[in-house]
Amino acid sequence: MRAIRIHAVGGSEVLKYEEAPVPEAGRNEVLVRLRAAAVNRVDILLREGRLPIGKALPHILGADGAGAVVRGGGGDARSGDRVLVTGDTLGRLRDGTYAEYVVVPNSMVVPIPQDMRYEDAVAMGTAALAAWQAVVDRGSLVPGQWVLIHAAGSGVGVTAIQIAKLLGARVIATAGADSKLDRARKLGADFAINYTHGDFAVQVKGITNNRGAEVVIDPVGGEILRRSLECVAPGGKVVSLGMVAGSEVALDLRKLIPRGISIMGLHAGALPPYQIADRYRQIGQLITQGRLHPVIDQVLPLAEAATAHQLLMQRRHFGKIILRI
User: Fold this and answer.
1) Is residue 205 part of a domain?
2) Residue 169 and residue 281: Cα distance in Å, rounded?
């Protein structure tokens, strides 16, 4: 099969488009012929060596893929079934989805509707699950509350905006480009802030009549997380699910403890399989109903994975970057 493999960690040049053995499915595993794979920020962290790869090199990255089952063993998936494959260990502890074929445990297979494009299915993979967990499970948003969503153009951001609006929340989105903010408004954001133009915390306080947001969704980390504490309402929550801007944050507890603010870490996919399946079932229903929409920036051939990584690192995309296989 053709695959993108890395033989060493480093820059995007370590992504090699080459022949690799077709994996063999074992007991309680499924072999899937992939047609699309999503590019996620975690792929870059693994490729650069900022997160450890839990297996020997060469290694295939990719936490999300969509395709058709070739054969399975012991589970509900049958040959020909159209599925999304996604999981916490995929592309990190085991070979991932940047390939024509992948083997995954039965628990990592989620059925997708017959009329859903593979590209759309994979765009709603890990990023959509993370957005759902952040907004619904951890954020517990209710109608009328304010939510601040950072990185509005990211895979998490574009989905979190839509889910928050479906819940009746008031959404403030941030991004570093006005073009992204325009598109965030079209997705439903009530207010949009360019964080390169002034202090976003001051602007959030102004928008919310000096109260702040009840929930902050932060896929960025670093200084963004620290500054977010300035604009959280008393008793509010910060859901932290990324560290692209840095993993170490200096916190002033005087801004945390007296106001009863909670900071919650979120690792997407670290749920029991039945809970993951339930979240994807609800996400799929919303897509089928036309109430939730996959947002894809562009689709590239698998051979151009290095270009896809570069685009993601440049942060000029809005929505998901997908590899067609």
Assistant:
1) yes
2) 22
Q: What is the chain's alpha carbon radius of gyration, rounded to the nearest angstrom? A: 20
Residue 73 clears pLDDT 80, i.e. is over it: no
Place of tokens 């896809």: 308
Residue that has been written with the tokens 């300035």 in this structure: 230
* pLDDT greater than 70 at residue 18: yes
Q: How confident is the model at residue 74 (pLDDT cuts 50, 70, 90)?
A: low
Token pair for 246: 């840095």
Question: Which helix (H) or strand (E) is 163 found in, with range?
Answer: helix 155-166
Which is higher by pLDDT, 278 or 15? Answer: 15
Task: Answer yes or no: do 118 and 241 share one domain.
Answer: no
Whether pTM exceeds 0.85 = yes
Residue with tokens 């916490």: 88
Tokens standing for residue 167: 């819940």
* Length, in residues, of the chain: 325
Q: Which of 274, 293, 278, 277 is nearest to 117 (CA)?
A: 293
CATH code for the domain in which residue 20 is found: 3.90.180.10
Per the listing, tokens 């079932």 go with 281
Residue 211's domain comprises: 127-265
Indicate the number of domains in the chain: 2
Same domain, 16 and 146: no
State the distance between the two ends of the chain, measured CA to CA, in whole angstroms. Answer: 11
